[in-house]
Amino acid sequence: MSQGIPKSSVGRILDFLSRLLPQPGPPVLDPSIQAKIETPLEGSEVGYRISVEGTQRRVPDNMELWLVLYAPDEDIFYPQPSAIMLLPGGRWYTMATIGEDKSQYIGKTYEMLLLMLPRASAMQLVRQAHEAMARGKGLGTPNIPRNGVVMDRRIITRR
Question: The pTM is what?
Answer without folding.
Answer: 0.78
